[in-house]
Amino acid sequence: MTGIIWGSTLGNTERAATIIAEQLGDSELIAVVNLDSETLEKYDTLLLGSSTWGFGDLQDDWDSKLNVLKEANLKGKRVGFFGMGDQYGYSDTYMDALGTLYEVIKDSGCSIIGSWPVAGYSFSASTAVIDGAFIGLALDDDNQPEQTEERITSWISSLTNK
To answer: Of 99, 113, 116, which is closest to residue 153 (Cα–Cα)?
Structure first.
């Protein structure tokens, strides 16, 4: 079973999480405000979603839950990331919220899944790019809303075919 944990201020990341859950099937949606270590530990796969705000900041609801993420036993779990951002308005911090989440869990013993190509995006810098790819699904409903569902479908396919 997959836990899809999301933080959303304007609803875009929540909508993406809902589409992911619908396409993925065997999953549960969890608003990050309801996150606790027991919730994290009950899933084999976790998909963590956040929008990037301002100059690379996590969505506000994540701030109070980062310690829960840091302290959870994620050893052996599969963890993926998805997020919303504005690649034109914030070109030098696009998807940095995903980079922040990655930094919190990268040494936890989990397997990071769901990298995503940078082709088709226009940005100058991102802490969410490692080895030439985003560490998770990058979405931009401000500038490319018509691509959101197609990108989610392709990303889900890549997660379930491995």
So the answer is: 116
Hey, what are 119's tokens? Answer: 């082709």
Task: Write down all domains in the chain, each with its CATH number in brackets.
Answer: 2-160 (3.40.50.360)
Q: Give, in order, the Cα–Cα distances in Å from 84 to each of 1, 14, 16.
A: 24, 10, 9
Q: What is the pLDDT of residues 35-67, one digit of tens each?
A: 998 899 899 999 999 999 988 999 999 999 999
pLDDT at 138: 98
Consecutive H or E run containing 130:
strand 129-130
CA dist 137 and 38 (Å) reads 26
Which one-letter amino acid corresponds to residue 159? Answer: L
For position 160, what pLDDT does the model report?
82
Strand 2-7, strand 116-117: pairing: unpaired
Q: Quick one: tokens of 121?
A: 């995006």
